[in-house]
Design goal:
alpha+beta; Ribosomal Protein S5, domain 2; Alpha-Beta Plaits; 2 domains; four-stranded antiparallel β-sheet; 11 helices; 14 strands; globular
Length: 361
Amino acid sequence: MKITAIANSNIALVKYWGKRNEKLILPQNSSIGLTTDCLSVKTTLEFARKYKKDILILDGKEFKRGSEEYDKYFKSFLNKLRNLPRSEILTSAESRKGFASQTSVKILLRGLAKTKLRAKAVSQSGFPKAAGLASSAAGFAAMAAAANSALNLGLNAQGLSILARQGSGSACRSIFGGFAEWQRGKKRDGLDSFARQIANENYWPDFRLVICLTSKKEKKIKSRAGMAQTVKTSPFYDGWLKTIDDDLKKVRKGIRERDFSLVGKTAEENCLKMHALMLTTKPAIIYWNSGTIALIHRVFEWRKNGLECYFTIDAGPQVKILCLKKNLKVLLKRVKKIAGLEGIIVAKPGPGPKIVNNHLF
């Protein structure tokens, strides 16, 4: 079947930086993020006998064997997909209840090599990719959702989260609308590493992210490579891990109680700690540019003068400013005065992936 899915980027409020298992994409720490309503990727995926090789087209450009996008991301994900069972492992009835048993889950990830068909995937994104906006989270959440339908896998949300995670870590959070927490898990096989929804997209309608694009260029150091180098070389990494549980507890509590100050303050502090890790990596990883630094200082200044807002920055130069709807108009007016910005996007809590009928090919 040919299936098209749309999924949205999930922006981390409590970051993850570093993996304990590169192959299964298992994180060193848990994380919490917000699925947006506007940073979307649309993907059409088809498995068919007519394809003699796997085909990947992103925003009109075909990526072929030998490219990082094809080999490390797309092909790796498809190989894992081809080792998934059909829906008899997880029936629709079981999906409503969650996984039927640990045995079923283990079969799910060990695989039965049921699908050997080649695939064609065509994706379009409405925002810059590889620029610190979690485009891979949206992309692999969409691909996981499309594959689930195309191959009749019958996965529930938990199963989809595990599947999406194996394409891109943050994608496991994009499976859920609103606010979601990706649980680190402890098992070596990754069966307990998936996301859970904290609150859906309708729970906190006044929450906003003002995404300030300081550069649309693709970053030179991809997140996967940067994380691996940080874990190996940053002298502060152990300290980072020791503080994460407290950050998670505060942000989780802040979301549930709609305590904007608690969420914003903790998210900003967490972001700065993550970038401190990057700065102390050998060689140093510096994603910020002059626009990033200018916005950081402006947010400090605006908050000091009574406009409550906070920032977060992922692995890129873009600054996401957290605010409430009541302060959005004033904040936008000030942001628009900053010279050099290449774009401004206003996001609010958005939904998880959806299947649509209008295909890309």
